[in-house]
Amino acid sequence: MRQTLLIAFPKGRLGDELVPKLVGTPLALDAGALKSRVLRIPTATPGVAVLLLKGADLPRYVAAGVASLGIVGSDTLDELDMDLLELADLGFGACRLSLCAQAGVTLDALRAKPHLRLATKFPRATEAWLARQGLTAELVPLSSSAELAPLLGLADAVVDLVQTGGTLKAHGLVETAVLGRSSARLVAARGAYLSEPGRIQPLADMLLGALKAKA
Amino acid sequence: MPIRTPHFPDLLFGSASRLRRWEDALMGLLEAHGYRELHPSLVLRESVPDGALRFFDGDDLVALRWDFTVALAGLLARSFPVPPPRVAYAGAVFRRPAQPWEAVERFEVGCERIQPEGEPSGEADVELARLLMAIPGVLGLKSAILHLGNAALVRRPLEAEGLFGDLADAVVAALSRRAPHRVREALDGHPSAARLTAHAEALLSGLDGPGTLDALESSPYADLLKDERDRMDRALKALLPILPPNLELRVDLADVAGLGFYTGPTLRLWAPGAQQELAAGGRYDRLFPGLGRPWQAAGFCVRLSRLLDLAETRPDLFEQPQ
User: Fold this and answer.
1) What is the CATH architecture of A5-93+183-213?
2) Residues B111 and B193 in one domain
3) Dihedral of the alpha carbons of B233, B234, B236, B241, in degrees to the nearest 10
4) CB proximity A138 to B under 8 Å
5) Closest CA relative to residue B268, chosen from B290, B245, B252, B291
6) What is the per-residue pLDDT for A2?
7) Taking CA atoms, what residue in B is nearest to A82?
8) Which pLDDT belongs to residue A36?
9) Which of A53, A101, A187, B101 could be disulfide-bonded to A58 (CB atoms 3.0-4.6 Å)?
10) Do B166 and B129 reside in the same domain of the chain?
């Protein structure tokens, strides 16, 4: 008998957008299980279940072949740089990766600092941008609430994801540069896809079909 | 950041015995087809790349053998005015792994087919593919998949567009992810963006049998790649009639792994359910000219360490030994 096929879904912002899109489709998540604390949720299709995972952990589950497919932000993919196939840009969850500083602080003012400190959850993307700009900076690695860093003097600015700009505004921050753009991507394990495309591709088509039907 | 611990596995009785048996069987197969064994030194003094296990021998920086093809190429270029046409090897290479779970010491068996420059290479490529087709049976794999690709399908359009360096690397990385949308992102604003994105979509449109080659017709580079397509078509016509019953043949137009090294047809062996390819190779016509020898070459390497892991984790993929 074949094992249950697992799809890894992100918790948080992307997951909140994704799960309602699947209601009424063959991949709708079991509402009862979703309300509980379980992290493995059956779908409307027998033999297909969803794992709810933190975005930063999700690519590892897919790369190791535990989950056949996953949905994750391209910002996370770029940051982890794992060996995954990226089968589609799903379009939703669009946001910018931006350099943000207190209102009145310009990009030129940041450039002029002899010792620039940037707080971020995205050190790889930030390093790449600094290299493109010919700048050097001290990176302050944070895993959450990066908006506080410039307000409390931990850093001169932050590099963070911006979707509506509401959080930035609430903290008196403004975008001074856009480093890149991110959206949700459908990913698959290279090994599983190349050795069993007949098993993985139909599941990917089902997921893409479900998302398209609700678009 | 990934946490990495050096992984130097010891082989216990079952794996040690399997390694010995598989090495003997594979070297026997290669010898029966005219491949003669060469054993390059375990310590290499060539320019040592990142990722090699390096140490000082007196004042000299040396490294444990990190790649058989490179080691053999150095040995052949130094020692032979005319290349031996068929060479085989078996042993360990030592390389810091890209993935944390991979071993530093890896056991391999492989072969190289070397020819003087200008000699037709199509038959040599088919010879190697036929040999690789026999390997699942020798190893006792119940079923396997052979992927045929061709590095020129990506190389030639990039060269024709004058795309080199970081931008070309970004396109290759996007193809490696099988993500045509990443090709579009990488080439945003470049004059070749529309053409190369359409080409990427053609290459990625299927991963199937011989019919996959038809996708090349929709590529803007269909004329440029006509010779490569004809060559793959001839190879398929030669291989399909002799395909063993437990082996599936697929055409993977978007195989870009090792694109910096491979110049033409590529071969990759998979088993259904295996997370990593079990053997890989292809044509690499630029290595020997770089060493001052006008020779062309192709070869493949069977990754015995991955097979040993697979035999432990997925014994159901193998026939039970008699």
Assistant:
1) 3-Layer(aba) Sandwich (3.40)
2) no
3) 140
4) no
5) B252
6) 55
7) B99
8) 86
9) A53
10) no
Say which CATH topology domain A95-181 has.
D-Maltodextrin-Binding Protein; domain 2 (3.40.190)
**A97 — contact with chain B (CB < 8 Å)?**
no
Please check whether residues B69 and B144 belong to one and the same domain: yes
What is the least distance, in Å, from the CA of B6 to any CA of chain A? 19
SS3 B199: helix
Laid out side by side, the sheet with A48-53 consists of A40-42, A48-53, A5-10, A69-73, A184-189, A84-89
Assess contact for A101 and A157: CB atoms under 8 A.
yes
Of A64, A86, A192, the CB nearest to B178: A86
B3 inside domain? no
* Confidence (pLDDT) at B4: 52
What average pLDDT does range A127-156 have in this prediction?
A: 92
Per-residue model confidence (pLDDT) at position A1: 41
CA within 13 Å, CB half, B171 = 30
ipTM of the complex: 0.83
DSSP state, residue B208: B
Within-domain flag for B313: yes
B73 & B112 share domain = yes
Give the total residue count for chain A.
215
User: Could you list the residue range(s) of the whole structural domain that residue B260 is in?
Assistant: 9-151+255-317
Cβ distance B178 to A87 less than 8 Å, yes or no, reads: yes
Q: 10-residue block means of pLDDT along chain B (322 residues)?
A: 62 94 98 97 86 91 94 95 96 85 89 93 96 97 95 96 93 94 92 95 87 93 96 94 94 90 95 91 96 97 95 91 60
Domain count, chain B: 2
Strand partners, A51: A8, A40
Q: How far apart are CA B237 and CA B218, in angstroms?
A: 22
The amino acid occupying position A205 is: D
| d(C-alpha A138, C-alpha B207), whole Å | 45
- Enumerate the β-bridge partners of residue B90: B109
What residue ranges of chain A are covered by domains with CATH 3.40.190.10? Answer: 5-93+183-213, 95-181
